[in-house]
Here is the input.
Amino acid sequence: MKTLKKSFFIVLSLVLISMINSPYSFASERYKMIFIVKSMDNPFWDMMIEGAKMAAKDLNIEMKCLGPVKPFNVEEQIRFIEDGITMGVHAVVVVPADSRGIVPGIEKAKKSGLVVVTPNTKALGSDVTTWTGVENEGSAYVIAKYVLSSLDGKGDIIILEGAPGAQTVMDRKKGFEKAIKEFPGIKVIASQTARSSRVEGMRVMENLLQQFQKIDAVLAANDEMALGAIEAIDATGRLNKIKVSGFDMNNDALKAIKAGRLFVTGAQRPEAQAYWGVVAAYLALKGMPCPKEIVLPCPVVDKTNVDYYLKMAK
Here is the structure.
């Protein structure tokens, strides 16, 4: 992601240059932050950690990156926040595993005077400094409409939902459903969670393939579930009959599109979400005004433009 890092640094340099003569404090204190993801079993979160570390290096921040041992365990995330308070960190940058469940931890951090930023997933019921991410409902709508249009608006489809409780998962399902309503010839024959996991995506899809002899498409709320579903479908010899979509644009998804196995995904750019989340926390600690939301684009990636994204990933 060298191109992305270069653009980040150019924009950041311009921001910092513009603040040289500002009335705000720019003491040389080295800030301490913790960056918390939802799990450590998904390349998406690895990419977010990479983006956070990139920002920490550029801004000379002492950064500790953490993720729950049990994927999507919000109680463990809250313990990380509590440990951060004890450690004396200045800011918490957390991707909520559960958008409402994380609120007690956020409130504890705020009462301790910490800056709180939530990249990727919003916290519902607590005010934070900044949220950075993509517009999940709108992006999911675009991806679903792309898939359903390719079926000429007719067919039986399956929705693989992500881990319950996260705002991103709820919004993506809303986006899928919004698109489906525009195609009366589309029938949703199953909609269930595969917990955002490749292993679960394969297991759930194996069961659904036994239940349904006719499946035209699978709308998966992330790439990991999509890739797991593809493994199950391929094992039955039905991959040429079923179109599978993902969401996230991890490297394995790009390779799957190139190989003609995954139909489409959304370029969510997790490293960018994390990078700008850390930048927002840094600026807030400096006393600078920060936007409440930093919304990043989520372009559609398919066989027509996958080479561009593969090149960028290298």
In short: Residues 17-27 have pLDDT under 50 and may be disordered. The first strand starts at residue 32 and ends at 36. The chain is about 45% helix and 20% strand. The CA atoms of residues 19 and 26 lie 9 Å apart.
